[in-house]
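Re: export button greyed out
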Amino acid sequence: MQTLRKSYWNVLYAVMTMGALVLAAGAPGEWGGP
Amino acid sequence: MPLLWAVVVGVLIGAIRFRGLGYLTRLGIRRGWTFIGALALQYVSVQLIAPGAPYEPDLRGLLILLGYLGVIAGVILNWRLVPIRVLGLGFALNLLAVLPQYGYMPITVEAYQASGQVRPGDDLSDGVKLWRAKDIVLSRERTLFWPLTDTISVREPTFLRGVYSIGDLIVATGVALLASGVGVGGATTVGGPKPLE
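Workaround output, generated via the alternate export path:
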């Protein structure tokens, strides 16, 4: 159960990291603007 | 936040290639918090700090640039990953475009209007920094490295609505490659399903 929970966390972490990466590195004006 | 679709598309491709989402735990991204921290800093500065006077450097722009330092650190720490190198190229192009404007990405009134995002009452005079955005309105003549700035306007489909730079598109490609599991394979897939290809 703990391993499963850790896997979910790792998947979430990877997705969050990539989301943060694409928004921070690119997409100037992504937040409600251009 | 249209560029997030790059993550969605990448994960869908990866899920098909690897028959599940388990590969996401093996992407090998190190120090992911540098990217999350960089975004948090940019988000706070854009949402909570008012833009300063036209053309002048301001705190908001400085914090955006500090956020970029976090991205640079993360890219260097993950340089061994090929998709990160692709993304790094796009980011470098964006950085080149924003540095002359102290952290703000130049956008022309025409490009902004073409995307259909202008609201009634918006001040689009030259030099104005847009609210809730990292952009500064600037005529093409005043813009250094104009081809690298936000020039690609997308009005439809609405989920992709925005104005993008060439750097943005390269960044999105890099993230999509990363999310689809490019670089995950060989020894790192031992114990897990192999890609279909």
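Chain B has one domain: 4-182. The button fix ships in the next patch.
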